[in-house]
Amino acid sequence: MTLSTREVVALARWEIDENLATASDHEMIVFSWPPLVAAKDKKESTTTPSWNIDRLCADEQTVKAAGEHWRELSDRRGPIDTEATEAELEDEAR
After folding, report:
1. Nearest 5°: CA angle at 18, between 13 and 23?
2. CA 57 distance to own-chain centroid
3. pLDDT of residue 91
4. Are 62 and 42 in contact (CB under 8 A)?
5. Is 89 within 8 Å of 80 (Cβ atoms)?
6. Contact 26/32 with Cβ under 8 angstroms?
7. How many CB atoms lie within 10 A of CB 22?
8. Residues 6+ apart with CB under 8 A from 32
9. pTM score, two decimals?
10. On the CB side of 45, how many CA atoms lie within 13 Å of its CA?
11. In degrees to the nearest 10, what's the CA dihedral of 15, 19, 22, 25?
12. Residue 13: helix, strand or coil by DSSP?
């Protein structure tokens, strides 16, 4: 499991709970951090994302180019399955 958010700061503490048995070779990690920031920076909350799907869809030539680019990328690789190598998984993630 991964936790990710801009509001989370460095963990205040973490430790492995050796008294909790799990059904795998993983150990339970217990952690805590200071309270999350409740209010976002005003500038951050009013900024527009760098992508804009409405602007993309308004330009037919751009939509066509994006579709062709996606087809080129997806045609070069097969589906990822349980037989995928670590290198294939890393490449797919990129």
Report:
1. 120
2. 25
3. 79
4. no
5. yes
6. no
7. 9
8. 11, 12, 13, 14
9. 0.32
10. 6
11. 60
12. strand
At 68-93, the pLDDT tens digits run 888 888 777 777 888 888 888 887 77
Residue with tokens 């460095």: 10
38 band by pLDDT with thresholds 50, 70 and 90:
low
**Whether 30 contacts 17, CB under 8 Å:** yes
CA dihedral 70, 73, 76, 77 (to 10 degrees): -90
Q: Is residue 71 exposed (0-12), middle (13-18) or buried (19+ Cβ within 10 Å)?
A: exposed
pLDDT tens string 3-35: 666 666 677 788 888 888 888 888 888 887 776
Strand partners, 36: none
The two three-digit tokens of residue 57, written as one number:
């869809």
Mean per-residue pLDDT for 51-78?
A: 83
Gap between the terminal Cα atoms of the chain? 20
